[in-house]
Amino acid sequence: MDQLIQKTIITITSIVITTVVGQFFNVEPIGLFYTAITCVIITHVDFEKLIENAKNRGIGTLIGGVIGIIFSYIPFPLILKVIIGEFIIIFFCEKKLKIPSAIASVVFLIIVYRITSEAPYLYGFKRVLDTFIGIIITVVITYIFKKINIFK
Question: Cβ–Cβ contacts within 10 Å for residue 88, how many?
């Protein structure tokens, strides 16, 4: 079966399952959104590439979340938070961990810019949790589909 069709089936199945599970547990729409984005971003028909994508997404989200939460409570002007935080994220992710820094930067900026009235620590925790739920569901769906050889 064509890889594009495989990726489409895995992505849509993962999004549907995360949505159904999220609605069952009354997850707010923003949480469903971030979980679905994770499914879209990490999906790959090659299981090893999927695991690499999942690892990078998970680590990036965790780093951006932690740094965003810390910086949101430091009494610096916003511009300094952004400059220093982005410097730390880009250097740490790209140089030390050898992973893309984009996801960490996005999560950091969402928290530091306070696009919600929710407490930064709570918002950051929820986004990290949403991401890991999306990762787990997408990895499990892909594994099951590959294991039962649905894509003959």
Answer: 17
pLDDT at 17: 96
DSSP secondary-structure letter at 96? Answer: I
CA distance 94 to 30: 28
Q: What is the mean pLDDT of the chain?
A: 93
Residue 38, both tokens:
């994770």
DSSP line for 19-78: HHHHHHTT--HHHHHHHHHHHHHH--SSHHHHHHHHHHHHHHHHHHHHHHHHHHTS-S-H
What pTM, to 2 d.p., does this model score? Answer: 0.89
How many CB atoms within 10 Å of residue 43? 26
Q: Which residues touch 3 (CB under 8 Å, ≥6 apart)?
A: 45
Q: Copy the structure tokens of residue 66.
A: 């932690």
CB 56 within 8 A of CB 98: no
Two tokens, residue 131: 């991401």
- Reference 126, options 52, 21, 33, 13; nearest CA is 33
